[in-house]
Amino acid sequence: MRALVVSELAADYGGTWVQDIPTPRPGLGEALVRVRAAAVNFPDLLMTRGEYQLKPPLPFVAGMEFSGEVAEVGEGCDRSLIGEAVLGANRIGAMAEFALVPAATLRPKPERLSWAEAAGYRAAYLTAWVSLVRRAQVQPGEWVLVHGSAGGVGLATVDLANQLGARVIAAGSSPEKLAKVQQLYAPDAIVDVRQGFREQVKAITGGAGADVIFDPVGGDIFDESTRCIAFDGRLLVIGFTSGRIPSVNANIPLIKGFSVMGVRAGEYGRQFPEKGAENLAMVDAMAADGRIRPHVSAALPLDQWREGFDLLANRQVVGKAVLIP
């Protein structure tokens, strides 16, 4: 099978290329899935350089999320799975013509979603759900400021916050992408952060500040977010795509009465398995009945994987980019 293999950790994907490798065979409890689409996520890029917390042994096949059809199952699996349209997630292995995963981790593909939409929604919306519902416990009518709102996770958060009845401020640094966010999900306000956003957010919220701030960017964005968060607010730390891990003096949240909350959606599910299962079930149900609407802005052949990675690295994607093996 053809697969995107990371053979060496290097800058600019120097140790990564498409190769022909043996197609795996499913063992006990495993399923082999014919991949129809594989999502491009920021951790995929980091893993090619060894900069993600997960460091798989080399060589490994890149890719965390996929959709496809079950081609074969191993011993101990229900053979009626064969031919079923499914979606799945694994820490590696998705960017290939076939993916080998534990059969128990597969879920039915929502019929209303295309292969591309199904491949990329789950991790983004799961992060949004854990952030807004489990950690921030957002309430209807609260102001939610979403940084990086045009990215895969940010856009999912805008969509979900709308569904939860929050008032949404979509923030970003590209007027073109913000216009697309406005067109897709109609947030209550949009904010261009290039000239600063503190005063804009204060004005939008009547001076109180945002009740919840979703921050996958870090760096200067985090620093300024501490200056426009409401009393009793929740500042959600999702990641550091800016490249700088910020810090905050403890007297600032003390005086302003806000909380800084870390979010790792996958780890949340591992620490609290019952809640993790509930999270996944809720996200899948919302996708199945149309309450959430994932957006794919680029679907590229596997051979164009570098273009897909660069679209994400250069922040040119609105929503998700996917690869088609």
Automatic annotation (TrEMBL):
Pfam families: ADH_N, ADH_zinc_N. Transmembrane segments: none annotated. GO terms for molecular function: oxidoreductase activity. CDD domains: QOR1 (cd08241). The lineage of its organism: Bacteria, Pseudomonadati, Pseudomonadota, Alphaproteobacteria, Sphingomonadales. It comes from the Bacteria. SMART domains: PKS_ER. This is NADPH:quinone oxidoreductase family protein. It comes from Sphingomonas lacunae. PANTHER family: QUINONE OXIDOREDUCTASE-LIKE PROTEIN 2, SHORT-CHAIN DEHYDROGENASE/REDUCTASE. Coiled coil: none annotated. Residues 15-323 form the Enoyl reductase (ER) domain. InterPro entries: ADH-like_C, ADH-like_N, ER, GroES-like_sf, NAD(P)-bd_dom_sf, Zn-ADH-like_protein.
